[in-house]
Amino acid sequence: MKRRILLFSAGVFLVMFFTMHMVVDQMAQPDTDNTIDETKKKLVKLNEEIDQLKSSLTKTQNALVPGLDNTNYKSKALVSVDSTGCGFAQSEAGLSADIRMLDIYKIIPFDNPDGGAWKQGWDISVPSGAFDNEILQVFVVPHSHNDPGWIKTFQRYYMDQSKHIISNVVANLIGNPNRKFIWAEISFLSLWWNDASSSQRESFKRLVKNGQLEIVTGGWVMNDEANTNYYAMIDQMIEGHEWVRLNIGIKPRVSWSIDPFGYTPTMAYLLKRMGMDAMLIQRVHYSVKKYLAQKKQLEFMWRQNWDHGTDTDILCHVMPFYSYDIPHTCGPDPAVCCQFDFQRLPGGGIWCPWNIPPQPISPRNVQQRAMMLLEQYRKKSRLYRSNVVLAPLGDDFRYADPQEPVRQFTNYEKLFQYLNSKPELKVKIQFGTLSDYFNALLKTTGKNDDGSPKGYPKLGGDFMTYADRDEHYWSGYYTSRPFYKNLDRVLETKHRAAEIAYSIASRIANQEKIAKFATNQFNLLVKSRRNLGLFQHHDGITGTAKDHVVVDYGNRLVQSVGNMQNVIASAAKLLMLKHKESYSSDEIRFDMDESRASHDSLPEKRLLSISNTRVVVFYNSLAQKRKELVSVHVSVPNVKVLDADGNSIKCQVNLQWKNKNSPRDNKFEVLFPIEVLGLGFSRVTIQKTDGSSDGCKPSKTSIYHHKVKNDLVKGFDVRNADCGKQYITMENQFIVADFDRCTGLLQNIADKSTGIKRTAELRFLQYMTVSSGAYLFLPSGTAKEVLIQKPFFRHISGILRDEIQAFYPNVYHNIKLANTNGIDSRSLHIHNLVDIRDTSNRELIMRISTNIRNTNREYFTDLNGFQMQRRRTLDKIPLQANYYPMPSMAFLQDPKLRMTLHTMQACGVASLKQGEFEVMLDRRLGQDDNRGLGQGVRDNKQTPYHFALLLENLTKKQTMVKSKIPIAYPSLVGHAVSQTVNHPINIMFGTSEVIPDSLLKQYSPLKSGSFPCDLHLVTARTVQGEGDSKPTDETAVVLHRYGYDCGYGMTPLLCFPLGSKIEFKSLWNLGVRNFKETSLTMMHDGNERGGEESIDLTLQPMELYTYKVKFSG
């Protein structure tokens, strides 16, 4: 096989060499116009030949590599790139695309001249004879965009509109085979399905199967792409696709995403791995649309920057005009297109803003109206490379009025009949679905061997930050309603942890015949899947809904947080009990250490009453072994902590304060390190002591700018301290950090491996505004520093953790440094409790200024927690345009150093000056920004933030710092810190009846106790069976192999990177009865293997893989 590949490659090389030689030889001839023209033609032909050779090589390699086929969802890894983590990251990537968004931003002037009828474009002309030799194909695609919460709640929208829309559409399509429609939001469809009669359901299924009614995308919602994490994006897509599979029996093949406020390549990649063929997007910066339209590049193959080949390419269509409503979809002139929205006829309840109403189509006017519409279609076609035109026909919640389908379909049918009856017009027009459009497009253009349309460009990069007009950049929603962005991540981590724990425990429950566990807990999981999925909607996690809608989302989220805690505690009980029959006892119970009273309350740590020995159980939802510091609140200070073998664990006890003057005398914090295996459970016991030296060591507290008594609590050293020039210093084996002795703010940080101190000045500032709203960030100038003069703060130091607790205007700032040898000791942990309820029209930020020399103010932000994207701060666009989403992390770097800021929740980030980070913390806004919400943002809450500041020194040569490369990768330590921040160890208290000896010392379903460092278990999700809330015995195991940068070292990780292959069964203590490859959301199954067969997996960096596994206990 190797010899065949070598011979073929040699042949390719020789052909390319001699062809190039001929062109160069020709170029050496006399410099005449004819010679130049001929040379240009030869170069074009050469490029075509090279492309054909590449396609042939790909096809040949496909044939030579066993087990590979052309299925969209599979990663073929056909390009010769070192697939080890180090080699992959060091191979230059992101340069093969024809359109590189990072470069496009350098080219576009962002000048926004008036384009006439198409305000943001130009006056499109159609040359005479343009359609003499080809027929214009027009697909009019009726649709209705249904937001699962925005101005109304999800349930209210369903009752008032969505329920009627689906019923009206079904009634108008049945018996009319030429009428078509597309539907996207499965959350609404599932409600309608529950209410529909059996005949309505059958009609719906019949329409889907005959191609009249197409389900596009098929997600639970049309998710946001700026603030979402890829886990939640995948989960809501699985929920939608599973519902469609179980109820309709089809597999969506194209994606429709018209309303999210900007787009990331992460979503394009996920769609590709789900098995999608093509996708459509709409909300792209108007200047970017114009640039692409001028070059006829509004359709392209979207390629991942990290892809060294073509394996991730997916066909993408960008809608060209301002909006997805009917006035902006038939062509460039909205005043004309509005006249073909027949719901705007008298009595329809809406009208045309251009004051030219539609006319009912009749024999009298059909010619004039048809030619007017055809002119718009022809003009629109000039923006694309093919003669196939897509003309969406819909808007938000359209077709709810039972007369609208009649008005739209009947009037358009008259127009179609006229146009199609005139062959001299060279037009074929019909109703269509999105798949109809893409199928016709590919038939017209022809297809390459990989299925892509011939001659279409490749694009790499993202479409952030979105602007719809002028300098109105939609960067405010990256931070709006941060309390609920935080609650979203809390549910996300609890939900993921519960899914995995349930999948493991249910196999044990089946083996032990404990039926009560599987049924009861799975109901809660399904509800949580749907509540989490609902909030990923582009008016949910974005913070852009009405106040009462936000409350509805919040209630769903907090209910599911509690339910997921119950699932985790129930699984812990089952897995940790030595005698499983005791599971049915209600006396033996585990309670999570945190609870929430309501949707808008902060979490409260439960108090562990220490009167006798109490058991504390820990659950690590990550697949890597962890050693970290944990915190438990206890009723007395004199305690000790024992491991499962009865050995003392080093521990620290801290005071808890009622106010500035008074510590609590019945509540204390105990800190101790805990080691937990991957996906594992472990336990300790906490006992009361007599105050002897074998107990936890009390911390010392220094109080600044406030006088307190030194003997407040017996055994604790509490003293007053003075402002001064010397720093307060925190230190562990990895980090030294300096803090201002007068303000308590961070000043410097050093990695002890080099000893080089770096400036890291942390400050709080605020932007003033009179125009910002939930969507838009429109500051009135640069940020002003929040004045901090002699603030009250505490410095707490102990054997396991140092911290500063500072009280600033609108922020309680708590910065911690752990002193263990675990991953939590590699970074400074910054906890902010933000409260801006006493302000108005303020946008609060945290800024960190360093002496890192990031050239051209370039830095990197993550896209959906999945990949990193290079950003470049530009002076030609306004401040708000240089803000980007930061769902998980951002880093600055120079040739020697990288500083990463990790976050537990999504927020906006910018690097406006060299060496600077700033993140937006909260926004309180008194006005609407005229994007439909109709209100400001004044429902602010006390909002918790958790950041981790990681400093890493470059230890090996690195290529990805080069400015031309649009991508970089976190280090393995960076990945681990991010996971630690986002997936903290779960802590549970056993009731007083729980006896330590009744529990196992520890439990893990993993053979070695850990996955490789670069292999992340995204989820292990029990597959749903027929009917809601019925589990099967299959588990969807989703794996992600990280791309990572080897230049920064691995200390103090407790794992090793993946080799070239891994045997799946060797990872698990659980038996494997059956194993099946499948697409990301399980729509397309692949190879299947029995439990007795070897299951060797080759996992490529950056790729996601889903397997259906039947585990046994």
What are the key terms here?
single chain; 1113 residues; alpha+beta; 7-stranded beta/alpha barrel; Beta-galactosidase, Chain A, domain 5; Immunoglobulin-like; eleven-stranded mixed β-sheet; nine-stranded antiparallel β-sheet; 18 helices; 26% helix; 27% strand; globular; disordered N terminus; EC 3.2.1.-; carbohydrate binding; signal; metal-binding; Glyco_hydro_38_cen_sf
Characterization of this structure:
This is Alpha-mannosidase. This protein is of the alpha+beta class and 1113 residues long. Among the domains are: 137-463, 7-stranded beta/alpha barrel, CATH 3.20.110; 763-980, Golgi alpha-mannosidase II, domain 4 (Beta-galactosidase, Chain A, domain 5), CATH 2.70.98; 1011-1111, Sandwich (Immunoglobulin-like), CATH 2.60.40. Helices cover 26% and strands 27% of the residues. An 11-stranded mixed sheet has the order 25-24-31-32-33-34-43-40-39-36-37. Strands 26, 27, 28, 29, 30, 35, 38, 41 and 42 form a 9-stranded antiparallel sheet that branches. Strand 49 (1071-1078) and strand 50 form a beta hairpin. The longest helix has 32 residues, at 33-64. The radius of gyration is 31 Å and the shape is globular. Mean pLDDT is 91; it is low at 1-70.
